[in-house]
Design goal:
Layout (H helix, E strand, L loop, with lengths): L2 E2 L4 E2 L4 E2 L4 E2 L4 E2 L4 E2 L4 E2 L4 E2 L2 E4 L4 E2 L4 E4 L12 E4 L4 E2 L4 E3 L8 E4 L4 E2 L4 E2 L4 E2 L4 E2 L4 E2 L4 E2 L4 E2 L4 E2 L4 E2 L4 E2 L4 E2 L7 E5 L2 E6 L1 H6 L4 H14 L6 H11 L4 H11 L14
Amino acid sequence: MSKIHPLASVDARAQLGDDVEIGPYCIIGADVKIGARTRLQAHVNVEGLTTIGEDCVVHPFASLGGPPQHQAHNGEATRLVIGDRNLIREYVTMNVGSSVGTGVTITGSDCTFYTGAHVAHDCVLGDRVLMINLATLGGHVVVSDFAIISGLAGVHQFTRIGRYAFVGAMATVVRDVIPYGNVWGNHAHLEGLNLVGLKRRGFSREQINTLRVAYRLLFAEEGSFQERVDEVAETYAEAPEVMEVIDFIRADANRPLCMPAREV
């Protein structure tokens, strides 16, 4: 049975899983679905076509499922889908998708959203993403698994953030960030690899060393960038981490690639 505080307002049409807890002054709309054992502490607003997975914890004053901040959106039915086991802290905002985009905003599972983080319309986040206080994603941003967006950082619309990438505090990201990359600054530039993150996530010394050598080759001065990409792809065809970077670079994209600001 769900536990609903008497001071909460839960629409009778909302779908609540087993053992959901709704704290005081929460407002839950008619089209909301909340998975088993998820807990909304107090003063949480969930509206629109929003689905929250199982075992999530949502702290006070979070607002989930609000309309997209897009002037071309005219109230069409669009969605927000939040995965399982996510921690959503105070004042986090997540908007539904837009009618001019995919129509759905998606977050994976086991993510952490600290105070004031914002996920805009049509964003797609992988699993175990970490967004620090006041980190902000513009619309249509893709953030892959294990990426970290530090405090006060802003990511421009249609930008891609690769797996295990690290975006430094107060960075303004207007270009795509390669998997395993480490970017800082305004505008953000590539500082190297996220070596601390790779070590913490259990990457072997051999994997890290292979990535470091491939990185130096990719962003060296000799030859054109395309020539270096082709050379690294041929040399490291059997190294999956390196080929992940190569595939990311070669993929169709709306944004150019975030590059180093100085010689490597």
